[in-house]
Amino acid sequence: MTNPLLAPVAPNTLPAFDAIQPEHAEPAIDGVLTDNRAAL
Length: 40
What we know:
Order of helices and strands: H
Radius of gyration: 11 Å
Distance between the termini: 31 Å
Oligomer: single chain
Strand content: under 5%
Shape: flat
Structural class: mainly alpha
């Protein structure tokens, strides 16, 4: 299973909202938090 919230998108485009499922949210948020914490 691929997570459309974690897939790279071209600039000025949106993720595939029709493919997003509720179970995709937590891993995507965890990934963003991890990346931002590493940047601090």
